[in-house]
């Protein structure tokens, strides 16, 4: 496809990006088109309000948190590379790719979903960050309550919400500090098939 | 109750026995009504003068005059009573699909009629079936087809419909011909053309049967849409093959030219059908643009135009099913924007009703004619047909899926393929086609019998067993253990995240064509086909109504009543102190929690269940949910001490988008929630009309006022200490300044823009009858676009 190549040449460091994230050129082109469609003012960076223009994302109860996840603390814009890198977390784990020990492990393998390296994003860490807005490494009761409120509808009273939050913390909290740390979070999701739930198929 | 229903049905049957076929109206003298008690036989005006001196007849009866409509009504009622009867006992309809039950009742009635040597009405004759019984069902399927998944899978659908049906017919035809060569079965006189013709008739998957079974069973969306689409669109192939083989069966020799012509005819039939459908769809949409003054007959246009599309397609012998389906698809989108809300509801209800009636009648009469037609039984032929049909369908699905899987974004796994193959039910269309085979085909009765056997086999055995099979297969995959609360919440969060990221990336399966089509649609089609300036149309009215209701609820909260919902869990309210004692949770509490969570968590797009259920209309409650959620946020803000920081989220959009006064549910996404708005009593932001004197103390009065434009100025920034975004908004409405605090906006900006607003003002009356704008503190401002 001629258009693919011409678009690819517009993006700097495309080879590196593809290797790091594992996206095919066709995907990169599509993501680039999407990036450009969102970036209405053509600055090459996306700001939070550009994301806000997506209607269905706005209806999502945790939509603004998702948007926030794209921006590292202190940063107000996101460029194409970071955009693609973050989206790479949601690709289904590719079992068929041969394991090349010399290559660095691709971003979304199962182990990277379980590690907690402070610098590299991992999938569970993305989910954890959606809860933990003040970034202290723990999900406190108040943060849990916030998320619960946004996800539940109006028939639920405050007392019920609080009891649910209490129960959640009770179940997960192993060191009894009344908050859920990342390790505890990961443990509670052990049995869940993360791959299946958190992968978006068309990003294959 | 059931006994009473049974009595009633038997009674109706007996009453209708004397009614013969209603396609011909034999002139029956009134005296032949033997069952009813003899009455004075004077019927209508006397043709000959009476010799005697007869008195004025007090009571007359003229049956012949009403015979046809009367019989029609009775049969419809009978079938509907049967349907009511089934639902008395719930378990039956769960395990046995309704089609089977209806056929069974039809069998009983057929047996009764046969024993009395009466002919049933010829409902499944060619003309009656194809002109009256089939269109409503197909219209219903087309109208309620979920368009987005359909267009995403259109390639797969057409692939299975066209190539799959061809594969099936040719395969079955050839194999049956081979079987016929075996002397033991005594069917050697069926030549190749006749076998192929028969194969073409029974290889098509039937929409009526499939839909009635699949809508009770919930399969995932992809599978549903492929099965759905396949059974509707294979009609083109069936029509072509049928006509071709009928034509050919008369000819002694088949030439290659004929095969080529057959292919050409296929394209004419298929594309012609779609073309007609689209044309009629556009004409219908265009017509509804002008019907704002004749709202009562708006639904009529939908039905008339789709039926017209069907009939015109039948006129040219092209695929009428495709015509009506594409007409409905095209029409739906534009018409639902043009007509009033009531007309829209009416259309949906009537379409569903007609479709259900038709389907009921078809299955019912399938049962009846099974008994009353003449059969010719041949063990070998029939058994082999059943076997071959299954085998070829299974093979076909396997092979075709292997070829098309690489092109699909979500490939079919083996479980899906199994359901796809197993769900190939045959039904009444095959029967109607075989019933009207020309009599020049010697073994017509054998074909009829085989078709009936095929239909019975697939509908009963496959239809009944498909649900347990699906459950059996599913059980091995999912984990049935009760998950912990943690997992439930986190999984839901993850699902929301996925949905959010998907929306972020945009749907791009067929992005290019869809994009082009949408551009074309917006620029040209919408301008022509949709009426502009619907400012006071139904949708806004509906929103106003919703707003009023929700505003009322908010007022209830303000006056002190916090618990709107019933508190299921009776927990002791623990004071929030630093050292909270740990609570013990009993099993009952846990069950309640799971209950609450599953019922109340915001329902994201369903990804794995079927779209429409047979017995309900699709609902638009999602947007209403959004509305309710927003108001919940307001309500929670009103509770003292429950304000915990920027929880409430507002959505703001790029101001460069134009505002137009066209409203639609989906376009309605701007929604501010303002928490505290201090308005000094001296400067009322807008004029509030004084309340009428009949309002009582403590009542509330809600008004929706269309205010002049509101000018908002936002200043915001990153708050280093709390590491959140905060900002301040000032608003200005005509006279006076409002200061709006604590609105969460994820951006740092200083900008201002104008937007038209609808301001809901809530007022409460005190004992002096004065208007207190108590809730001017809680004004909801809504930007309309």
UniProtKB/TrEMBL annotation, chain A:
Signal peptide residue numbers: none
Q: Which UniProt keywords apply?
A: Calcium, Cell membrane, Cytoplasm, Lipoprotein, Membrane, Metal-binding, Myristate, Nucleus, Phosphoprotein, Protein transport, Repeat, Transport
Q: Check the record and name the CDD domains matching this protein.
A: EFh
Single GO molecular function: calcium ion binding
Entry's localization field: Cell membrane; Cytoplasm; Nucleus
The record's listing under Pfam families reads: EF-hand_7
Tell whether Protein transport is among the UniProt keywords.
yes
Q: Which GO terms describe its biological process?
A: protein transport
Q: Where is the EF-hand domain?
A: 127-154, 160-195
List GO terms (cellular component aspect).
cytoplasm; nucleus; plasma membrane
Gene3D superfamilies given in the database record: EF-hand
Task: Return the SUPFAM superfamilies for the record.
Answer: EF-hand
Please give the chief subcellular localization of this protein. membrane
- Which parts of the chain are coiled coil? none
Q: Does the keyword Protein transport apply?
A: yes
| PANTHER family the record matches | EG:114D9.1 PROTEIN-RELATED (PTHR46002)
User: Family per UniProt?
Assistant: Belongs to the calcineurin regulatory subunit family. CHP subfamily.
Q: What is this protein's record name?
A: Calcineurin-like EF-hand protein 2
Automatic annotation (TrEMBL), chain B:
Q: Is the keyword Signal in the record?
A: yes
Q: Name one Pfam family in it.
A: NEXCaM_BD
Keyword Transmembrane helix on this protein?
A: yes
Extract one GO BP annotation from the record: sodium ion import across plasma membrane
What GO CC terms are in its UniProt record? plasma membrane
Describe the family membership recorded for this protein in Swiss-Prot or TrEMBL: Belongs to the monovalent cation:proton antiporter 1 (CPA1) transporter (TC 2.A.36) family.
What is the name of the protein in this document? Answer: Sodium/hydrogen exchanger
């Amino acid at each position: 496809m001629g258009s693919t190549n011409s678009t690819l040449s517009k993006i700097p460091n495309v080879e590196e990006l593809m290797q790091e994230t594992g996206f095919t050129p066709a995907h990169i082109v599509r993501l680039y088109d999407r990036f450009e469609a969102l970036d209405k003012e053509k600055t090459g960076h996306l700001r939070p309000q550009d994301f806000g223009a997506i209607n269905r994302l706005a209806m999502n109860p945790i939509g603004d948190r998702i948007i926030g996840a794209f921006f590292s603390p202190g940063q107000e814009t996101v460029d194409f590379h970071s955009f693609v890198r973050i989206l790479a977390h949601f690709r289904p784990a590719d079992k068929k790719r041969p394991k090349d020990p010399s290559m660095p492990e691709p971003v979304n393998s199962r182990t990277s979903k379980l590690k907690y390296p402070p610098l590299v994003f991992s999938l569970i860490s993305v989910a954890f960050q959606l809860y933990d807005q003040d970034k202290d490494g723990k999900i406190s009761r108040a943060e849990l309550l916030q998320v619960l409120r946004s996800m539940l509808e109006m028939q639920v009273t405050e007392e019920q919400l609080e009891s649910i939050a209490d129960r959640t913390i009770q179940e997960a909290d192993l060191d009894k500090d009344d908050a859920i740390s990342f390790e505890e979070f990961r443990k509670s999701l052990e049995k869940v098939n993360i791959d299946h739930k958190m992968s978006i198929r068309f990003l294959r | 109750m059931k006994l009473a229903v049974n009595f009633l049905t038997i009674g109706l049957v007996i009453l209708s026995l004397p009614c013969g076929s209603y396609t011909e109206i034999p002139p029956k003298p009134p005296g032949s009504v033997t069952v009813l008690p003899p009455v004075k036989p004077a019927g209508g005006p006397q043709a000959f003068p009476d010799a005697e001196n007869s008195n004025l007849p007090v009571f007359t009866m003229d049956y012949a005059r009403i015979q046809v409509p009367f019989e029609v009504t009775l049969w419809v009622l009978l079938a509907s009573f049967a349907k009511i009867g089934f639902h008395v006992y719930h378990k039956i309809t769960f395990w046995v699909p309704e089609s089977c039950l209806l056929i069974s009742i039809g069998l009983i009635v057929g047996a009764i009629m046969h024993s009395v040597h009466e002919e049933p009405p010829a409902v499944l004759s060619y003309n009656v079936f194809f002109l009256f019984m089939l269109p409503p069902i197909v219209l219903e399927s087309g109208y309620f087809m979920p368009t987005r998944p359909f267009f995403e899978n259109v390639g797969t659908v057409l692939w299975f419909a066209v190539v799959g049906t061809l594969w099936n017919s040719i395969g079955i035809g050839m194999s049956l011909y081979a079987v016929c060569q075996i002397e033991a079965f005594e069917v050697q006189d069926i030549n190749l053309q006749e076998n192929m013709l028969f194969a073409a008739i029974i290889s098509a998957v039937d929409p009526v049967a499939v839909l009635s079974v699949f809508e009770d069973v919930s399969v995932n969306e992809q599978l549903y849409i492929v099965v759905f689409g396949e059974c509707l669109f294979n009609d083109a192939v069936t029509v072509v093959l049928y006509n071709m083989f009928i034509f050919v069966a008369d000819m002694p020799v088949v030439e290659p030219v004929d095969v080529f012509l057959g292919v050409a005819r296929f394209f004419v039939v298929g594309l012609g059908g779609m073309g007609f459908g689209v044309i009629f769809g556009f004409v219908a949409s265009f017509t509804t643009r002008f019907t704002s003054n004749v709202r009562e007959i708006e639904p009529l246009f939908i039905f008339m135009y789709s039926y017209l599309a069907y009939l015109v397609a039948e006129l040219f012998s092209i695929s009428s099913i495709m015509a009506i389906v594409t007409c409905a698809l095209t029409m739906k989108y534009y018409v639902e924007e043009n007509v009033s809300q009531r007309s829209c509801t009416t259309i949906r209800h009537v379409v569903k009703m007609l479709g259900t009636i038709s389907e009921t009648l078809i299955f019912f009469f399938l049962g009846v004619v099974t008994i009353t037609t003449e059969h010719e039984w041949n063990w070998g032929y029939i058994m082999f047909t059943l076997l071959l049909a299954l085998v070829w369908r299974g093979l076909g699905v396997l092979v075709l899926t292997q070829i098309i899987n690489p092109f699909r974004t979500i490939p079919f796994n083996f479980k899906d393929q199994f359901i796809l193959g197993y769900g190939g039910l045959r039904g009444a269309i095959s029967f109607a086609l075989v019933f009207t085979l020309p009599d020049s085909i010697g073994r017509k009765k054998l074909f009829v019998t085989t078709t009936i056997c095929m239909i019975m086999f697939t509908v009963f055995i496959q239809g009944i067993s498909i649900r347990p099979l699906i459950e059996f297969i599913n059980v091995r995959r999912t984990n049935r253990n009760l998950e912990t609360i943690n997992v439930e919440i986190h999984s839901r969060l993850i699902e929301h995240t996925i949905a959010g990221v998907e929306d972020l990336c945009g749907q791009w399966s067929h992005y290019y064509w869809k994009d082009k089509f949408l551009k074309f649609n917006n620029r040209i089609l919408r301008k022509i086909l949709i009426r502009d300036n619907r400012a006071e149309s139904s949708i806004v009215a509906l929103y106003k109504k919703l707003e009023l209701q929700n505003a009322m609820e908010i007022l209830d909260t303000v006056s002190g009543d916090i618990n709107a919902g019933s508190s299921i869990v009776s927990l002791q309210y623990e004071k929030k102190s630093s050292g909270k004692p740990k609570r013990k949770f009993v099993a009952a509490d846990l069950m309640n929690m799971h209950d609450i969570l599953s019922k109340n968590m915001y329902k994201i797009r369903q990804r794995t269940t079927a779209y429409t259920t047979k017995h309900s209309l699709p609902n638009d409650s999602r947007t209403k949910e959004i509305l309710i959620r927003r108001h919940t946020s307001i309500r929670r803000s009103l509770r003292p001490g429950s304000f915990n920081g920027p929880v409430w989220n507002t959505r703001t959009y790029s101001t460069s988008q134009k505002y137009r006064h066209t409203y639609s549910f989906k376009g309605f996404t701007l929604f501010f929630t303002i928490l505290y708005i201090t308005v000094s009593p001296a400067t009322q932001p807008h004029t509030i009309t004084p309340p009428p004197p009949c309002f009582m103390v403590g009542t509330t009065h809600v008004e929706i006022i269309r205010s002049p434009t509101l000018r908002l100025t936002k200043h915001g920034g990153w708050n280093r200490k709390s590491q959140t975004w905060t900002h301040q908004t000032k608003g200005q409405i005509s006279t006076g300044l409002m200061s709006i605090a604590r609105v969460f906006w994820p951006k740092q900006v200083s900008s201002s823009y104008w937007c038209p607003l609808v301001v809901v003002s809530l007022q409460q009356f005190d004992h002096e009858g004065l208007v207190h704008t108590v809730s001017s503190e809680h004004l909801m401002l809504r930007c309309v676009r």
